[in-house]
Specification:
heterodimer, A: alpha+beta, Uridine Diphospho-n-acetylenolpyruvylglucosamine Reductase, domain 3, 11 helices, about 25% strand, globular, B: alpha+beta, Ubiquitin-like (UB roll), 2 domains, 5-stranded mixed β-sheet, FAD (chain A)
Chain lengths: ~280, ~150
């Protein structure tokens, strides 16, 4: 095995073009587990820790450009006001030690259906910036997840950043796990309500994280703007979310449990998001 | 591969490092620092927690090559000579050490918390220690130790 140590992005892309089998490693919280347990023996590791461009974020009129190797801890402390949904999901990742190393770019690279940030990236309309020696392109989050641990990256591409609009509405995220910390999601759910539009997505409940279009359309039509939510509406929303899931039975939970839990998460997060919106309206008046 | 790293303030060199091995392995097997414990090797238990450039991390999940030229501080580096760090002393005084296996990781995690938050609430202590498992079922004494250290 080789250990490739690029000093900047151009070098990293040149390495990846030359050695497509090289596995990128930033925080190492996924890759090192695979190495420690002999599940993977790549020809080379491509260390991204020295590539400064990947460890920075910046803002522009169109939103935040989050470098792929910015650790979760920094997303939480530095971007919680601009990207509340992503910060919420980041807070549920592992432990402080893991959040100090793990990155949104790593979550995307691994493309596990259970990755905590995926539902939020789907509901915020995030775009994944991928670069290679051939150039740079932006992939909408919805086109990024192709299957269990498969994503839309070409073999010579690296994830360089994620582009997210700054939130002006309400965003919520919640996940179910067997304990409060250090746990992979049994299922997860994110919702964003902004400018009379609703987006919602599920995690760990289908081969890929996915949006739930029928539930979104139902809500967008039925939301009683300016008034409290009827329970019947929350319940129906939960049912539509559960119906969009295609989960499996595994060691962490049964498919039936995941569907039930998703309907509960959908109701709760919708309630929280609605409180946020009503509170903001009354504060304005 | 050769790795040059500053450990507990001293420049160290490890030779013949396999490219896929962890910082934890380098510390324990190559540099003779067995304080950080090897348990789960997947970032679940926190027993191998060390500072990497002032941030607590699971050393089992850092590739050895990634620490080239960087600074690591292990539990061995917290005491000043024979004088224990207040967190270490509090673990002793509160009886927070049972079999002792999880103690080094907990000490580093608690040390970091108290650096950032000198007078933490119980909730903050629980959150900060959520990545460290103790299988002797001793969390109450550990919480006592961190509260005690906060007052020192």
């Amino acid at each position: 095995m080789d250990f490739l140590r690029p000093q900047n992005l151009a070098e990293a892309l040149a390495f990846k073009a030359e050695r497509p089998e090289a596995v990128p490693i930033a925080g190492g919280t996924d890759v090192m587990v695979e190495l420690n347990f002999d599940h993977r023996r790549p020809g080379a590791l491509l260390d991204l820790n020295r590539v400064g461009e990947l460890a920075e974020w910046s803002t522009s009129d169109s939103g935040v450009r989050l470098g792929a190797a910015v650790p979760y801890t920094r997303v939480i402390t530095e971007l919680g006001d601009r990207l509340p949904g992503l910060a919420m999901a980041s807070r549920t990742v592992g432990s402080p030690q893991i959040r100090n190393r793990g990155t949104v770019g790593g979550n995307l690279g691994a493309a596990s259906p259970a990755g905590d940030t995926h539902p939020v990236l789907l509901v915020t309309g995030a775009e994944i910036e991928a670069a290679s020696a051939r150039g740079t392109r932006r992939i909408p989050a919805e086109e990024f997840y192709l299957g269990v641990k498969r994503n839309a990256l070409a073999e010579d591409e690296l994830i360089t950043a994620v582009h997210l609009p700054v939130s002006e509405g309400a965003q919520q995220f919640s996940k179910v796990g067997t304990r409060n910390a250090m746990v992979i999601a049994v299922c997860s759910f994110a919702i964003a309500i902004e400018g009379f539009q609703v987006r919602a997505a599920i995690g760990s409940a289908a081969p890929t994280p996915r949006r739930v279009p029928e539930a979104e359309e139902f809500l967008a039509e039925e939301l009683p703007w300016g008034a409290p939510l009827p329970d019947s509406l929350k319940r129906r929303f939960g049912e539509l979310v559960a119906a969009a899931a295609d989960p499996i039975d595994d060691v962490r939970g049964t498919a039936a449990y995941r569907k039930h839990a998703l309907s509960v998460l959908a109701r709760r997060t919708l309630g929280w998001a609605w409180q946020e919106i009503l509170g903001r309206d009354s504060a304005c008046a | 591969m050769r790795v040059n790293v500053t450990v507990n303030g001293e420049d160290k060199q490890a030779d013949d490092v396999w490219e896929g091995e962890s910082l934890l392995y380098v510390l324990r097997e190559r540099l003779g620092l067995p304080g950080s414990k090897n348990a789960c090797e997947q970032g679940e238990c926190g027993s191998c927690t060390v500072y990497l450039d002032d941030l607590p991390v699971c050393s089992c999940l850092v590739a050895a090559g990634q620490v080239e030229g960087r600074e690591v501080r292990t539990v061995e580096g917290l005491a000043e000579g024979d004088r224990l760090d207040p967190v270490q002393q509090s673990f002793v005084d509160a009886g927070a050490v049972q079999c002792g296996f999880c103690t080094p990781g907990l000490v580093v995690a608690a040390h970091d918390l108290l650096n950032r938050v000198p007078d933490p609430s119980d909730e903050e202590i629980r959150e900060a220690l959520a990545g460290n498992l103790c299988r002797c079922t001793g969390y109450e004494k550990i919480l006592d130790a961190v509260r005690m250290a906060g007052t020192r």
